[in-house]
């Protein structure tokens, strides 16, 4: 609770929300795993969330608490004297051992080895059974009431607005600017300022007003701080302060600024990077790619200048690195002259809106002539097509056979605007529904993206199943494994809820490869949640594609995710199970395994606070076997309580061909000393 409230005050909302999930799990488990409801209590135990109130009347280790239940289905095995004296206890759980203190209750269930040790049986109320209906219902009601009590406690402490931000509830997008402030960027800063002013002035008070503004300046060697606000006038004031100074040796700390934005902004944010220089900190590229995959944020670059820069010996950085990251996130890499920049910023206006969806996204490298079909449904509004590349011609054709070529700036189907390497096609409002086609001709690399506004959409996570007393699915914090089925949890939303749409197919498709969609099996989990299993995962980078029918208009639709993913033979695992104390070394166990060739694998770790860390630079892996090791991170003693740390770890084969990553959040919390006689200071 201390960590949650402190993180909210520091505006570390993602860290607060993740901690909240852990806390709620523990809180709800109390009512299922203890004898609270067997003792006759119906209200929540407030002492659990109040550090100034002690946990009282606990059965000590030598006090027997349960009677033997040979059948395992006894209604209430708690001993009469425990019930009479209102002694609080819980069940022992043994995953690897059946041992427990004499006379103690067990958790119970197939996964609990102690449940076969006298006293047998168990007291958990996790599931509704014929022998525990009343206690299960009472535990559920108490857990719900306790959860509401905890949430209300947090809401009163942090206020309504920050509470909603912590919960990730916002009606529109977050707009984030990462701006190069070196000496040559004066014109670019002026244009970024003008765009922010236009967004604020045109959308203030409307449903498309951004829910939050974030600004991250970067220079050389400095970057940051991150400035975030929900107040549009404050953002105007902050961006008006930016001045172009310093720099001089060309490459700048672009990726450090982007890392700060990706770790601080909410997931699914739109991030715009303004720069005229290549990255000096190119070593961060793999970390940035991991953070993009983790957050599913969309990164677009507005690059001025021709990238004729001195190359560093550490790594040959170029504007192509920015193009790679933009494509991986589903963003755009727009290359224009400084004079053209004001014309290229329409894309920011387009995407700083509500209910933005992607209909289609493709990339070709090298370029070739190809026809791309895509489905437009009745719900879509403000449909816009973006094509980036050079030496491109194209023809757009609607379902009725009416066409418009790239030479018609204003035609029967819409308006076309060309600036730098970007072509932006805004379709007319009276567009036809059905299958459209876009034929592109170019021998140079190009990207294609079709977007619109619609409440028919979906969100997803790659997940993995886990066993134990509470089997289920957990979000995968890395790339899915090669040679195994990929599992996704997809949540769909229709115009009038999930029931107003029919899902036809959910699959994986490569952005840069052939159109073949992988087959999948779907299991309806209820409330719009669908468990999807894909047996054969495509080679290379892929995205999720969903097709179905909108029952409201009886029109077919298609939607696509934007963040690219790929499989890996490497698996790296680490779990953060506690907070970190200022000035104390925190040990984080991790393990790495490969299904590919064994040998030396490099280990690389970075944290966004630059706190000192120690870990092995490499591990020797044997195919199919996990190798264990430990990373140590030590926040300085002066680190404020509530600071969150985003830690990224990567394991890479010696050839560099295969790698995988894990992204974790750690909270720095000063140790709380509990006093029974006075409130904690």
TrEMBL record:
Occurrences of domain Hemicentin-1-like von Willebrand factor A (ranges): 175-338
SUPFAM superfamilies: vWA-like (SSF53300)
Main location: secreted
Superkingdom per UniProt: Eukaryota
All residue ranges annotated as the VWA7 N-terminal domain in the record: 3-164
Region (Disordered): 106-125
Keyword terms of this UniProt record: Glycoprotein, Secreted, Signal
Pfam families per record: GBD_Hemicentin, Ig_VWA7, VWA7_N, VWA_4
Ranges where the VWA7 Ig-like domain occurs: 570-669
Cellular component terms per the entry's GO annotation: extracellular region
Xref: PANTHER family: NG37, VON WILLEBRAND FACTOR A DOMAIN-CONTAINING PROTEIN 7-LIKE
Name assigned to this protein: von Willebrand factor A domain containing 11
Source organism per UniProt: Lates calcarifer
